Every structure is written in structure tokens, then in C-alpha cells.
């Protein structure tokens, strides 16, 4: 089973539905393991609470509750500085390494420009949906 780190933009898009909502559907039925760290979940929560998203507090609570129930939490052991243009993105790479993930899924150009790190491919939501549909 694939182990995956989702960048915040993918996670939030997944929560809002649409095409990326397919990732949420697949996670709900256990098609992959979401790997997160406390830093990642904290950023998910910060972004989900932005007024422009118009999410109700109970919806946010349900999303975060599911993360705490279903995601696998890791504590990264090393600080990595590979995303120099936006150092806050390094937390996704750190969690991916610690969690021995198969993919980092991102819509962030700084991460996508890396293409991979330590043999972990960094792919788009579309590429990940295609992988999920094949499996």
C-alpha cells in the first residue's frame, strides 16, 4: 500500500472536493496511508481556518479528527534544507523520509521542481489520482 505525504494545498483542495476530492475518497476507503507530522497538521489546520475557504468549524473539526484517527504521525529526525525558495516546504520532505513514503503529492512549484528527493518522487495530484486508479 502506498504511503503518501500530501502538501497543504493538495490536502485543502481534497477537503474542498472537485477533482482532487477523488484523493479524499480513496483515503477514506483505505487505498493509501497518509503520513503527517505535527508541523504538517498544524499548517493544514491554519489554512483550513482561513475565512476565504468558508468552511464551517464543525467541518474543519471533522477533517482534523479524521487526520488524527487515520493518518500515521511521524517525528522527523533530521532537518532538511532542499526547498530553498520556500523553506516551510521542507517539513513535507522531512516527514516523507521519516515515514518511508512512496510519494509526496504537491501543487507547489518549489516542491515539484525537485522532482524527487532520496528516491521519493514528488508528483502532482493528477499523477497521484492516475496511480490510484491503476491500483
The percentage helix is 40-55%
User: Average pLDDT, to the nearest integer?
Assistant: 95
Number of strands: 6
Strand order of the largest sheet: 3-2-1-4-6-5
Q: Given the C-alpha coordinates, what overall shape results?
A: globular
Order of helices and strands: EHHEHHEHEHEEH
Proportion of residues in β-strands: 15-25%
Q: What is the C-alpha radius of gyration, as a whole number of Å?
A: 14 Å
Can you summarize this structure?
Helix content is 50%, strand content 16%.
Description of the structure:
With 135 residues, the chain is of the alpha/beta class. 50% of the residues lie in helices and 16% in strands. The protein has a six-stranded mixed β-sheet, with helices on both faces. Strand 5 and strand 6 form a beta hairpin. The radius of gyration is 14 Å and the shape is globular. The mean pLDDT is 95.
Supply database-style keywords.
135 residues, alpha/beta, 7 helices, 6 strands, 16% strand
Amino acid at each position: 500500500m502506498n504511503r503518501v505525504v500530501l502538501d497543504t494545498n493538495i490536502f485543502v483542495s481534497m477537503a474542498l472536493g472537485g477533482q482532487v476530492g477523488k484523493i479524499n475518497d480513496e483515503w477514506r476507503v483505505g487505498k493509501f496511508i497518509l503520513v503527517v507530522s505535527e508541523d504538517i497538521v498544524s499548517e493544514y489546520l491554519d489554512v483550513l481556518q482561513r475565512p476565504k475557504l468558508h468552511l464551517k468549524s464543525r467541518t474543519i473539526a471533522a477533517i482534523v479528527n479524521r487526520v488524527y484517527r487515520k493518518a500515521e504521525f511521524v517525528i522527523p529526525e533530521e532537518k532538511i534544507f532542499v526547498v530553498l525558495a520556500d523553506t516551510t516546504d521542507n517539513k513535507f520532505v522531512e516527514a516523507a523520509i521519516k515515514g518511508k513514503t512512496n510519494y509526496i503529492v504537491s501543487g507547489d512549484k518549489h516542491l515539484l521542481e525537485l522532482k524527487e528527493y532520496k528516491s521519493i518522487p514528488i508528483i502532482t495530484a493528477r499523477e497521484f489520482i492516475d496511480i490510484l486508479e491503476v491500483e
